[in-house]
Write the structure tokens for this entry.
Amino acid sequence: MKNFSAVLNVILLIAVGILYFLFFKGNGTTPAANSIKAGPRDTSSNSASCIAYFNMDSVESQYTEIKNLREQLKSDEQVLNNELDGLKRDYTKRMQELQAQAKTMTQEQGEAAQAEIYKKEQTIRQKEAENGQALQVKQFNMVQQINKKIEEFLKSYNSQGKYSYIFSHSPGDFIYYKDSVCNITNDIVKGLNSEIIKK
């Protein structure tokens, strides 16, 4: 039985060797070598696979529209926070009043005071949640508005079809190499800001 296993292994080894020889005999080279010898790549500016990129953090820091929208968002947040602070001040004041009266309250008055305080706490929590949601919606709309303006500008910028793809790059993206020749950030910032001036 041991001899049969040894003979079978030898036969399989010979068969693999023959297949390997036949496969590479016809090509004369390995598949990897064939791929290396492929023809030269077209790197001209009219190439159908021309790619450009822009740095999103630079656009965010230099595009006037984003600065304006951020200031507006900050102002809206301050208004909402002021309203909430007013509710909190009212709650604190009423708490102090009720605590001062606590010793002279009847059981019924004490229960009414607890219900009042609970209602005020609920109002504050609800207001905080509403403010957070309102700011999230405004921020989302701001991002959508900016993305649309950038997209519309890029369509005009690339009207000649020079680029097949234009990517935005942000810190943390998995892009390990960028050729500065393909960086169109300055063009985008200038173009977007000039549209604001025209309007």
Remarks:
- The beta strands are 51-55, 165-169.
- The two ends are 91 Å apart (CA to CA).
- The mean pLDDT is 82.
- Residues 107-157 form the longest helix (51 residues).
